[in-house]
């Protein structure tokens, strides 16, 4: 059974940091480009960052230079280090394998003073 389990969200002040984790089933982790998406209230889900099996990364312009995606192949886990957080980063963050039908349950990130 394929599973994606996100964790690490929470409430943080502007300028703060959070680290999200996504523990994935081995099959999806080995087969797909892994990615973080986010969805804010009233907005469409958007791609935040992605990482290939070889470690190549890609970022949305809005987070480039502030967020870092990484993967630990031994632990089948993908991370999203989020620094210099802004109120507009507030959203539910989801983990997925791009092109797969599998999504995690999401983790809420709220940036507010």
Q: Which range best describes the helical content: under 10%, 10-25%, 25-40%, 40-55%, 55-70% or over 70%?
A: under 10%
Please tell me the overall pLDDT: 95
What strand order characterises the main sheet?
A: 2-10-9-4-5-6
Choose one word for the global shape. Answer: globular
- Total helices: the number is 1
Question: Could you walk me through the main structural features you see in this protein, from its secondary elements to its overall organization?
Answer:
The strands form 2 sheets. Strands 2-10-9-4-5-6 form a 6-stranded mixed sheet. A 4-stranded antiparallel sheet has the order 1-3-8-7. The protein has 113 residues and is mainly beta. The chain contains 1 helix and 10 strands. The N and C termini lie far apart (40 Å).
Concise account of the structure shown:
Helix content is 5%, strand content 47%.
Describe the protein's topology.
Blueprint: E1 4-7, E2 10-12, E3 18-24, H1 26-31, E4 34-39, E5 46-51, E6 57-59, E7 67-72, E8 77-82, E9 91-97, E10 107-111
Name its key features.
47% strand, 6-stranded mixed β-sheet, globular, 113 residues, 10 strands, 4-stranded antiparallel β-sheet, mainly beta
